[in-house]
Amino acid sequence: MVIEILGNKTNPSVLVIGVFHGDEPQGDYLVRKYFAKFPDTKLLMVPCLNKAGMEAGTRVNGNGVDINRNFPTKNWGELQINAFFGGEAPASEEETRFVIDLVEKYNPRVILTLHSPYKVVNYDGPGEEVAKKIADIIGYPVEASIGYATPGSFGTWAGVERNIPIITLELDENVSLKALERPMDKIFNMLEEY
């Protein structure tokens, strides 16, 4: 499997990841649109982490695993049901290992992941300041908790356990992608300064 990387591969301070969940494809479109306009971006961008899930229109990857429950956290495996299945072992999935390698290689100062549909700016670790700046642009509330348990999540692995500011931007799925371009361009431009 080849996962595409766009942007600054030399010394990025911000990592942006789209499509952790295949049924949340907005990130792929928005990252690609931004990169087409700003090919010299300072951001390191993964438009689509879960290509198999996006092609199938499912939350999970090609192995039936929720990538965002597959990270090797202290709480991995506490919730192993339905579409939130975290895999047979932590970091069992190629996509998970890919993200871990990116974080370890580049040591980003801030990470933004693009999800849907909750219209909220969620953060993990020391991400509140960045979350508020994003919320000011997009007009969503800032929430430290998404409201349910997320064992094995990327936010827990990188934000809580590694102290990297992680922002999970939950986009409104009822708004057209075209309408999301302008606020997302502003968010990406703001992150260029980190």
Explain the overall architecture:
With 194 residues, the protein is an alpha/beta fold. It has a single domain, classed as Zn peptidases (Aminopeptidase, 3-Layer(aba) Sandwich). The chain contains six helices and seven strands, in the order ββαβααββαβαβα. The chain has helices at residues 26-37, 51-56, 94-106, 128-138, 154-160, 177-191, and strands spanning 6-7, 14-18, 44-46, 110-115, 120-124, 142-143, 166-170. Strands 1-3-2-4-7-5-6 form a seven-stranded mixed β-sheet. Strand 5, helix 4 (128-138) and strand 6 form a beta-alpha-beta unit. Helix 1 crosses helix 6. The radius of gyration is 15 Å and the shape is globular. The model has no long low-confidence stretch (mean pLDDT 94).
Summarize the structure.
This protein has 194 residues and is α/β, with parallel strands linked by helices. It has 6 helices and 7 strands.
Major sheet: size, sense and barrel closure? 7 strands, mixed
CATH fold naming: Aminopeptidase
The arrangement of helices and strands along the chain is EEHEHHEEHEHEH
Name the beta content range: 5-15%
Give the mean pLDDT: 94
* Count of spatially separate domains: 1
Helix fraction, binned, reads: 25-40%
Task: Catalogue the unreliable spans.
Answer: none
Tally of helical segments:
6
| Envelope shape | globular
Q: Calculate the terminal CA-CA distance, rounded to whole Å.
A: 31 Å
> Rg, please?
15 Å
CATH superfamily: Zn peptidases
How many β-strand runs? 7
- Structural class from helices and strands? alpha/beta
CATH architecture: 3-Layer(aba) Sandwich
Q: Could you name the CATH class?
A: Alpha Beta
